[in-house]
Amino acid sequence: MRIISGKLKGRRISPPKNLPVRPTTDMSKESLFNILNNHFNFSELTILDLFSGTGNISYEFASRGAESIVSVDGDMGCVNFIKKTAKELDLNIIPLKSDVFKFIEKHQSSYDIVFADPPYDFTQEQFEKILKDIFANGLVDEQGMVVIEHSKFTKMDHLEHFSFEKNYGGSVFTFFEYELEESDEDEDDEDN
């Protein structure tokens, strides 16, 4: 696993073999960040990384200068690995051990980007609940974006706030955003 871009570009990270994870491939990760790069200035972003696993996505955001990153995973081994790696590399990542569903339910902050990479064997209902609860509990800013990584067998393009999706082999990134209202400036211009 390596960091694709930013101040730690090319840095290899070797998680222990016994972690219960399926890290996002470098090729998929590079494509994801190319898309996000067209929407956001990373230096001002607040990030929530759900089902963070090895911290692969969190390290990428940190390397690119994100303001703050909260990484949530239910496995203590994953959380300890992220904590250790973030300290070694001096990254502004806050790793938290929590059941992600409970975290979403109780958490009070909102973020510019919420990235979720649940286990691919989650049911369709579990994937949909994650998304619904993120929006219902205000975890994403009005100008923000939710990205969910899932297998090609899970369908999310019919859900509220769907924006677009990108396929990379067996993996799919589906992007969700609030539908922004047309600004009132157009009407103001007509009055002048």
TrEMBL record:
Record organism: Myroides marinus
CDD domains per the UniProt record, alphabetical: AdoMet_MTases
Region described as Disordered: spans on this chain: 1-21
Biological process, per Gene Ontology: rRNA methylation
Name of the molecule in the record: 16S rRNA (Guanine(966)-N(2))-methyltransferase RsmD
Lineage: Bacteria, Pseudomonadati, Bacteroidota, Flavobacteriia, Flavobacteriales
Coiled coil: none
Keyword Methyltransferase: yes
GO function terms (MF aspect): methyltransferase activity; nucleic acid binding
PROSITE patterns registered for this protein in UniProt: N6_MTASE (PS00092)
Keywords: Methyltransferase, Transferase
Superkingdom assignment: Bacteria
Keyword Transferase on entry: yes
